[in-house]
């Protein structure tokens, strides 16, 4: 649903690496739907999202711009379809919780397509963290910047532009997945001439004196690195940390353990989420352990808290939707 840039990457990856069938495409335009279907050998194309939702598919992958995820997901759920929704799951906590409630009420599967957490390397990272090898976790440092052509939707305020939802959601998801619920945060941001936020940084504290620092910006590429620090060792994920690739664990005595994997991008990585979702649905589950809905909701709550401090309001939100702390 929404055959744009990421839908192309997702389709190529799923078709190449799984036996799943991309059965139909739904676009706001029949021409775009048919063109996409033609490029990828897909048998059914619809000229509206409503027709796709009413069709005979098992699950709908929502790949519209951020501020249409909520209505697209509800359209699919209300038609009795499971949903996999591109990141961020919605534009705020309220939308994320609304999707989770609607799915649970209907007994349908829902997940945020936070593909990073479905990659094999994150399975290994989770095992490292669970093993206690790093000691007590104290700090997470994570950032994400990228260069965009000026025509990209990230510069469009009407599409909830700015780096927070496109890029910042990766470091924020990592930080909250590792350290949990924050107790305090301080954010600084700078506007872009287009009217969206250009960059923001946040310092976040958690129970027990643990801290995280994040930056996200749309000016240019950064290492997109992430480091998880513990009292016994630190783990640094090769950049871009959200994509396939390696990571290393360093101990104070100079010992270094490396997880080696060729760097990859969407083609190499997006199919893992599709496979995990299919396995979960086949097993009768309504969520995936790699990205529980409660974690998607928590990430959006932290993004809301950052926006509160910076006065960033997305389309369709009243300032009251993004509550001030
Ligand atoms: N997982 C990842 O690595 C990754 C990477 C990039 C993007 N994403 C996420 O995927 C979502 C889509 O990003 P994208 O880069 O694929 O965007 P995109 O290229 O602009 O595609 C979005 C599609 O949504 C549909 N759409 C519905 N309402 C629209 C509107 N008002 N304006 C524009 N398009 C509208 C359009 O298809 P029709 O009009 O034909 O229906 C359009 O092709 C975003 O939420 C983004 O965060 C994820």
TrEMBL record:
Residues in Gfo/Idh/MocA-like oxidoreductase N-terminal domain copies: 2-107
Pfam families hit by this protein: GFO_IDH_MocA (PF01408), GFO_IDH_MocA_C3 (PF22725)
Record InterPro entries: Gfo/Idh/MocA-like_OxRdtase_N, Gfo/Idh/MocA_domain, GFO_IDH_MocA-like_dom, NAD(P)-bd_dom_sf
Superkingdom of source: Bacteria
Keyword Oxidoreductase: yes
SUPFAM superfamilies reported in the protein's UniProt record: Glyceraldehyde-3-phosphate dehydrogenase-like, C-terminal domain (SSF55347), NAD(P)-binding Rossmann-fold domains (SSF51735)
Positions of the GFO/IDH/MocA-like oxidoreductase domain: 125-235
UniProt keywords, alphabetically: NAD, Oxidoreductase
Family: Belongs to the Gfo/Idh/MocA family.
PANTHER family according to UniProt: OXIDOREDUCTASES, TRANS-1,2-DIHYDROBENZENE-1,2-DIOL DEHYDROGENASE
Name used for this protein in its record: Gfo/Idh/MocA family oxidoreductase
Originating species: Arthrobacter humicola
């Amino acid at each position: 649903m929404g055959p744009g840039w990421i839908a192309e990457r997702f389709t190529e990856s799923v078709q190449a690496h799984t036996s799943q069938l991309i059965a139909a495409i739904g676009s706001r335009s029949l021409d775009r739907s048919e063109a996409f279907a033609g490029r990828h050998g897909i048998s059914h194309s619809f000229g509206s999202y409503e027709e796709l939702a009413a069709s005979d598919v098992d699950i709908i992958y929502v790949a519209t711009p951020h501020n249409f995820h909520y209505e697209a997901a509800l359209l699919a759920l209300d038609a009795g379809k499971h949903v996999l929704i591109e990141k961020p799951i919605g534009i705020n906590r309220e939308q994320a919780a609304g999707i989770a409630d609607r799915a649970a009420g209907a007994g349908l599967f829902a997940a945020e397509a936070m593909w990073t957490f479905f990659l094999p390397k994150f399975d290994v990272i989770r095992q490292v963290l669970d093993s206690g090898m790093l000691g007590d976790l104290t700090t997470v440092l994570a950032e994400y910047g990228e260069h965009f052509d000026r025509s990209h939707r990230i510069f469009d305020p009407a599409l909830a532009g700015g780096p927070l939802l496109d890029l910042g959601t990766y470091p924020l998801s990592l930080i909250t997945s590792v350290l949990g619920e924050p107790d305090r945060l301080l954010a600084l941001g700078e506007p872009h001439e287009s009217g969206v936020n250009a960059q923001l940084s946040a310092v976040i504290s958690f129970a027990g004196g643990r801290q995280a620092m994040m930056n996200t910006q749309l000016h240019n590429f950064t290492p997109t690195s992430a480091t998880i620090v513990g009292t016994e060792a630190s783990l640094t994920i090769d950049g871009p940390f959200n994509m396939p690739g390696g990571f290393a664990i360093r101990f104070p005595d100079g010992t270094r353990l490396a997880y080696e994997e060729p760097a990859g991008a969407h083609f190499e990585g997006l199919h893992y989420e599709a496979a995990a979702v299919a396995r979960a649905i086949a097993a009768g589950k309504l969520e995936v352990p790699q990205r529980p809905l409660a974690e998607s909701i928590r990430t959006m709550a932290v993004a809301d808290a950052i926006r509160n401090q910076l006065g960033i309001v997305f389309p369709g939100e009243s300032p009251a939707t993004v509550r001030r702390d």
